[in-house]
Amino acid sequence: xxxxTHTKYIQSLQHKKSxxxxxxxxxxxxKLVPDLLAGRNFICKELFAVKEWFDHNExxxxxxxxxxFTEVEDFExxxxxxxxxxxxxxxxxxxxxxxxxxxLKDKITLxxxxxxxxxxxxxxxxxxxxxxxxxxVCSQGCADMYNPKVVQSTMGSLGRVNIIYTNLAGWLKxxxxxxxxxxxxxxxxxxxxxxxxxxIIIIGNxxxxxxxxxxxxxxxxxxxxxxxxxxxxNAAVAAGIIISHVTG
Amino acid sequence: xxxxTHTKYIQSLQHKKSxxxxxxxxxxxxKLVPDLLAGRNFICKELFAVKEWFDHNExxxxxxxxxxFTEVEDFExxxxxxxxxxxxxxxxxxxxxxxxxxxLKDKITLxxxxxxxxxxxxxxxxxxxxxxxxxxVCSQGCADMYNPKVVQSTMGSLGRVNIIYTNLAGWLKxxxxxxxxxxxxxxxxxxxxxxxxxxIIIIGNxxxxxxxxxxxxxxxxxxxxxxxxxxxxNAAVAAGIIISHVTG
Lengths: 248, 248
Prior knowledge:
The structure is a homodimer.
Chain A: H1 4-12, H2 16-22, E1 24-28, H3 32-39, E2 44-49, H4 51-56, H5 60-63, E3 68-71, H6 74-80, E4 89-94, E5 108-112, H7 118-130, E6 135-139, H8 148-154, E7 162-166, H9 168-174, E8 180-189, E9 199-203, H10 212-215, E10 220-223, H11 235-247
Parallel strand pairs in A: 2-3, 5-6, 5-9, 6-7, 8-9, 8-10
Antiparallel strand pairs in A: 1-4, 2-4
Helix pairs in contact in A: 7-8, 7-11
């Protein structure tokens, strides 16, 4: 049984301000929650699940003695869930402190300028994890990595990629020894670019691309050749194509 | 002013059964609606917009004399819209008959096996349009191309790609003169595959991949090399990476 206060508290974690104050976020579902628990990149504080889920996950109680487990009814899970269709289990995790002293030498680093769609950000985090990129640097205007929609779409990759939020122009100026590439609608065609050992690759906003301030710092614009007529590619798809090409 | 019956009728187009019966679908927003009108791939029957939109698009009334234009209040648009945040204009278009006699020779053809997420399907249609692929062949289990979420995420590419729905195994058997490739978690690494002049590329379901029946017909499995730890890539991202590679 969940109290009204407790319910409101979990609901509040759907909002960035509350997540920042509490230092917590939520993750949901019978695939993602065990993945995040097993990954041990985030400390789980509380876990709420329906009876059937606990019946199939008995041993978790002894594996994680520090987690507060609560059995809830479907309607209670529905109240605390951020999903349209709540799914068996919801857990509250501690946010972690990102490592802001990242190494750029001999690595590909992804930089996101105002990626606002949570689904896109989550998909990009998954791409970085697939291709073994260690770090993503986000502008302050990007969606919050702990937004429930981002968390759900990362499919467990959230704990395996170090993500920092910073003033992009300032950060790029400080790291001017590494060549900066941008995904653009014009520039060097991707196939003409070889495999890269190191570099910063910037992906811009879904509608407005890369901001002028950041664009000024770009050393080479690269473009995915278009033979058809679409105006643009989805930002996550563009990120995937470029990273696959330069690391492949 | 919109009558209750008219409102219900437009709302019904959010469901596949009603769309199929009426042969109609809806598209929304000040970017997409004019794009679809200008593309002239779909016949527009009715257009509903708020006063401000009509103020800025006066000349459309004379350009398209056969469209029934209706000025609506914000709350009325909210009722007929499929968007969380309705945006100025909604139009009703006629579905078109796909061209089922497609040419596969000397072309790359994309085949989708049960792509269920409307956002993924829309993004894949946009990818096909970007790379100039003429046709997409969908299994019956794919999301409906006229689902409002698909329509919105195609960003106007919907009219420029011919999309057919069919029994995939049967269709592939009939077209066995063309080499069939699948996006898989194992197989030939993508960089080892050269540029392709022709071929069928199959992308499988978000969670279950390609069905056994279809997999039996595949000639070559290809895989996007993974150096990190993510379990999978988003289906649209995988489609983008493979198509970019084989056409690049």
